[in-house]
Specification:
The complex is a heterodimer of chains A (345) and B (667). Chain A is 42% helix and 19% strand. Chain A has 12 helices and 10 strands. Chain A has 345 residues and is of the alpha+beta class. Chain A folds into 2 domains: 94 residues, no CATH class; 228 residues, Bira Bifunctional Protein, Domain 2 (BirA Bifunctional Protein, domain 2, 2-Layer Sandwich). Chain B has 5 domains: 68 residues, Phenylalanyl-tRNA Synthetase, Chain B, domain 1; 202 residues, Phenylalanyl-tRNA Synthetase, Chain B, domain 3; 68 residues, 2-Layer Sandwich (Phenylalanyl-tRNA Synthetase, Chain B, domain 1), CATH 3.30.56.10; 188 residues, BirA Bifunctional Protein, domain 2 (2-Layer Sandwich); 85 residues, Alpha-Beta Plaits. Chain B contains 20 helices and 33 strands. In chain B, strands 4, 6, 7, 14, 15 and 16 form a 6-stranded mixed β-sheet that branches. In chain B, a hairpin with a 3-residue loop joins strand 12 and strand 13. Chains A and B meet through helix 5, strand 1, strand 3, strand 5 and strand 6 of A and helix 7, helix 10, helix 12, helix 13 and strand 20 of B.
Chain lengths: 345, 667
């Protein structure tokens, strides 16, 4: 065999390799082609190099050089191919692991807070941030704390057993959280700045707008120089914080025995932005609270100096605030505890 | 209270539209619930506060309107021709109980002709929803709606001996009221009587026998003033209310009685003819002394928080009918008789505030040097709520009212707080535990197809002389429902126990569980307690059936106040620097031996840091009296990485100790 022939053969091998290499796409055929050309025993190129010793010495160098060049080319082509195949393999392995991301997520059960608790805590936090202390008191109360001390004398119709649950002649289920005001003033001197959230009872049969048991939150501020303007400003600030900065607050003259002047508190309708809707009956306002300047007779009942101190008080139903916040239209939902209701919070 | 705009216009000129008047009335505290057009008239439905009976008539409302607009009030004008015969010669009136009846005015009218009212009268009444009866009765209603003074007309021929005596009812006395109902009277009730019988329940309702009828020709017209408390008591006792009692129990104007009597007599003469005998028989033992209240000028600023000019203050009082004189620091103000709600300086300040306009005062925040604070243990309560919510429990809030039979089933020994006047038998006491209301909430949901539930309530329970807060957890159905991702798994006893343990550990309140003294409503074999502060387990199947729950229910009750209080200051433990080494062992244990007893048999060198069971097999290739228990033990040192040999020695010590207690390693 002359070197010329040998070099032609090398060229044929190269052409053959180029052809076959293009068809290789998986690790097994890669290994096959590597063995076929480069195997130490039977590789096509190995065999060619073994023929080297049969060549005349002057051709050996040239042939050897060409053969080694070809070997280098094949090795590098196979290395590149190997990298490509490995990358493709990794990619397809990940593709095989693909999931249907449109299936629903796997939810662990989480508990929901009752809307009355959410709203109550929110109200508490707003008032705490305004410097108020939260106070509480018993639900079984004395008639003195619930009525007499609040300027509701024995002859007053609010004390009628048709409206109030009595335990005995001098004990009842509190009809408002106001007795906590009395308890607080009995145990401390002004300045007083408290809120009292809690459960209260009225003798109303249950329907969408009445519950025999509901929740109130009340505020009391007593100090020297507390004014009606302070009551207005405090209510305005609270409602902006609770319903949003665009909320307006309006006070309307009204009557409650434990305050003078007394006022109903309206907020601009949260549903229509005061434009007038079904909820606000077209008025643009929704009644949320009762309020007023603490009546001197209340101060007398707790031995506060009525010449020195003035104060304001206001209170409303937590159910009402939750109704407005979440558009709840039936009070009974609060105590039915239907999971379809609770899970929305 | 319905108010006709046309009628109102007789007493005051309204310079604005009906809609504008509506918002003005609301602005001074006469809340308008509705405003309806009725022909050429407008009808205002006013919500009059209980302290303003003067506004239960058109003149009273007109006075407020006059103050709103700064215009004059015109009182009703009328003419009356009296006959020559003095009424007092024909008729006598006496008051036996002046405490209850401060004034009684009577007019005697002869020769009236009873018939239908003229249209103007009929229309006025009907526009306000008052049914027309006859001309004389209609006049009494008309004057009441005009002047807020209730009146009553008797057929004078039926009054024995032409006498009116205001007295208490006699024991056992009966009378049939205008509504045809025979009433049993008692001496607490004030009556109008003739020489023999009661003829009217004073201030509440007239009697049928003396009612004005078609044959009536002589009328005794009553315009009186009664003690509000007396009227309210009588009205309640009889279960009888009327437009008259509604006004009297709020307080009528004692000075109006005579004017109203004349006004009505003149109208009767106008619509029913007849002769009004000369003079009003006016018995007035409770002559009112005008109240005078001092108003200090500086109180306007210091109480209301804004200044109001003197001229504005004086105009308001003048229009509202208060007489005032200047004093060195303000005004001395005489309260008119119709304003029974005014007694204090603050009441006068209210008059200024509402008529000047609540909106004219600034909105300020009170200065304060203090700080705010939550209730004690509020942070702990919030932590607790977060824990149980993370465990999957949703909060419920339930009625605190229940019935004794049900509550005794869960707390047989607690004396409940009983209501004197419950609305219903099943709401007659305050609950003694949170269990029954929780079971009812589960039932509500189960009945509506929701079967996998976890609820909690943090609420009060009550006993005589005390209110305590408890936490109740309840779970039923699947902990994990079947889904495309996972198979289902029921909630079980150990899920509940884990939740209870986590809550207790959060507050470092974990105590020893025992199964002693199982409460009757728990499954006797699936119950545990920590003293009397924690009870938990599976609900007894009998209760499941009674409360129609149809599936296993798990309950835990925890006395919250104690738990929240037990949380100590927390100091962290350093993270271990050296690895732990785990050794597993498998024991054969007598079936009578509990896991806690196995634990107790394991010695505790300080390197044994954690013990956890991981398998329990009840039967297999071992004696039937035993069970197999597999446990992992972790060994760890704070000082160095333990060698295999050291762990081996420690572990062998454990095995020897267990063997000594008869717990052999399973081969």
């Amino acid at each position: 065999m002359s070197s010329k022939t040998g070099i032609e053969q090398l060229r044929a091998i190269e052409e053959q390799f180029d052809r076959e290499c293009g068809a290789v796409s998986d690790p097994r055929s890669l290994e096959e082609i590597r063995n076929r050309y480069l195997s130490r025993k039977s590789g096509i190129l190995t065999t060619q190099l073994q023929n080297l010793k049969d060549l005349p010495s002057n051709e050996r160098a040239e042939f050897g050089k060409s053969a080694n060049q070809l070997k280098g080319k094949i090795e590098s082509a196979l290395a590149t191919l190997e990298t490509t195949i490995q990358e493709r393999e990794k990619t397809s392995a990940l593709q095989r692991e693909a999931v249907d991301i449109t299936l629903p997520g796997n939810h662990r059960r989480i508990g929901h807070r009752h809307p009355l608790t959410i709203v109550r805590k929110e109200i508490e936090d707003i008032f705490i941030s305004m410097g108020y202390t939260v106070e509480d008191g018993p639900e079984v109360e004395s008639t003195f704390n619930n009525f007499d001390a609040l300027n509701i004398p024995a002859s007053h119709p609010a004390r009628d057993p048709r409206d109030t649950f009595y335990i005995s002649d001098d004990q009842l289920l509190r009809t408002h959280t106001s007795p906590v005001q009395i308890r607080t003033m009995q145990k401390m001197k002004p300045p007083v700045r408290i809120i009292c959230p809690g459960r209260v009872f009225r003798r109303d049969a249950m329907d969408p707008t009445h519950l025999p048991m509901f929740h109130q939150v009340e505020a009391l501020v007593v100090d020297e120089g507390i004014t009606f303007a302070d009551l207005k400003g405090t209510l305005e600030r609270f409602h902006k914080q609770f319903f949003g900065e665009t909320t307006k607050t309006r006070l309307r003259p009204s009557f409650f025995p434990f305050v003078e002047p007394g006022a109903e508190v309206d907020v601009s309708c949260v549903f229509c932005g005061a434009a007038g809707c079904r909820v606000c009956k077209g008025s643009g306002w929704i009644e949320v609270m009762g309020s007023g300047m603490v009546h001197p007779n209340v101060f007398k009942a707790v031995n506060y100096d009525t010449d020195k101190y003035t104060g304001f008080a206001f209170g409303g139903g937590i159910e009402r605030y939750a109704m407005l916040k979440y558009n709840i239209n039936d009070l009974q939902l609060y105590i039915q505890n239907d999971m379809r209701f609770l899970e929305q919070f | 209270m319905k108010i006709s705009l046309n009628w109102l216009n007789e007493f005051v000129d309204v310079p604005e539209s009906p809609e504008q008047l509506r918002s003005r009335l609301t602005g001074v505290g006469l809340a308008v619930d509705a405003l309806d057009k009725a022909g050429d008239d407008f009808i205002y439905e006013l919500d009059i506060a209980t302290n303003r009976p003067d506004c239960l008539g058109h003149v009273g409302v007109a006075r407020e309107v006059g103050a709103i607009y700064g215009v004059s009030l015109r009182m009703p004008k009328f003419e009356m021709r009296e006959g020559v015969k003095p009424a007092a010669d024909v008729f006598s009136i006496s008051i036996e109980d002046p405490e209850q009846c401060g004034r009684y005015c009577g007019r005697y009218i002869e020769g009236v002709k009873i018939g239908p009212s003229p249209d103007w009268l009929k229309n006025r009444l009907e526009a306000l929803g008052v049914r027309s009866i006859n001309n004389v009765a209609d006049v009494t209603n008309y004057v009441m709606l005009e002047l807020s003074q209730p009146l009553h007309a008797f057929d004078a021929d039926r009054l024995v001996k032409r006498k009116i005596i205001v007295r208490r009812a006699r024991p056992g006395e009966k009378m049939t009221t205008l509504d045809g109902v025979e009433r049993n009277l008692d001496p607490s009730m004030l009556m109008i009587a003739d020489a023999e019988h009661s003829v009217a329940v004073a201030g509440v309702m007239g009697g049928a026998p003396t009612e004005i009828s078609a044959d009536t020709t002589k009328v005794l017209l009553e315009s009186a003033n009664f003690n509000p408390f007396s009227i309210r008591k009588t009205s309640r006792a009889l279960g009888l209310t009327s437009e008259a009692s509604y006004r009297f129990e709020r307080g009528a104007d004692i000075e109006m009685a005579r004017f109203a009597c004349d006004r009505a007599a003149s109208l009767i003469q106008l619509v029913a003819g007849g002769t009004v005998c000369r003079g009003v028989i006016d018995i007035y033992p409770g002559k009112r002394k005008p109240a005078v209240v001092q108003l200090r000028r500086n109180r306007i600023q210091s109480f209301l928080g804004g200044a109001v000019q003197d001229a504005v203050v004086e105009r308001i009082f003048q229009r509202l009918g208060f007489k005032y004189t200047a004093t060195t620091d303000g005004w001395s103000i005489e309260v008119p008789s119709y304003r029974i709600d005014i007694a204090l300086e603050e009441d006068l300040l209210d008059e200024i505030a509402r008529h000047h306009g609540f909106d004219k005062f600034p909105a300020t925040l009170p200065p304060y040097a203090g700080y705010g604070a939550s209730l004690p243990f509020e942070p702990e309560e919030r932590l607790l709520r977060n824990r149980v919510a993370a465990q999957g429990y949703s909060e419920i809030i339930t009625m605190a009212l229940s019935d004794e039979h049900t509550e005794r089933r869960f707390r047989p020994d607690i004396e409940p707080v009983k209501l004197l006047n419950p609305m219903a038998e099943d709401q007659s006491i305050l609950r003694t535990s949170l269990v029954s209301s929780m079971l009812r909430s589960l039932q509500w949901n189960l009945n509506r197809g929701m079967r996998d539930l976890q609820f909690y309530e943090l609420g009060k329970v009550y006993r005589n002389g005390g209110e305590r807060r408890w936490l109740i957890l309840a779970a039923t159905g699947m902990l994990r429902p079947k889904s495309v991702h996972e198979s289902e798994r029921s909630f079980n006893f150990y899920d509940l126990k884990g939740d209870v343990e986590d809550v207790l550990q959060t507050f470092d309140a974990d105590g020893g569980f025992t199964s002693e003294k199982p409460a009757t409503y728990y499954h006797p074999g699936r119950f545990a307690r920590v003293g009397d502060t924690v009870l938990f387990g599976e609900l007894h199947p009998q209760y499941v059936e009674e409360f129609k729950l149809r599936q296993r229910v798990y309950l835990a009750e925890l006395s919250v106040d104690l738990i929240l209080r037990s949380r100590p200051q927390r100091q962290i433990q350093p993270i271990p620097r050296f690895p732990s080494i785990r050794r597993d062992l498998s024991l054969l244990v007598n079936k009578s031996v509990t896991y806690v007893e196995v634990l107790a048999a394991i010695p505790r060198p300080k390197e044994l840091v954690k013990i956890e069971p991981f398998d329990r097999v009840e039967s297999g290739p071992f004696p039937e009296s035993k069970y197999s228990l597999a446990i992992s033990l972790w060994y760890q040192s704070n000082e160095r990485t333990l060698t295999d040999a050291e762990v081996e020695e420690l572990h062998n010590g454990v095995l020897r100790a267990l063997a000594a207690k008869g717990m052999e390693q399973r081969k």
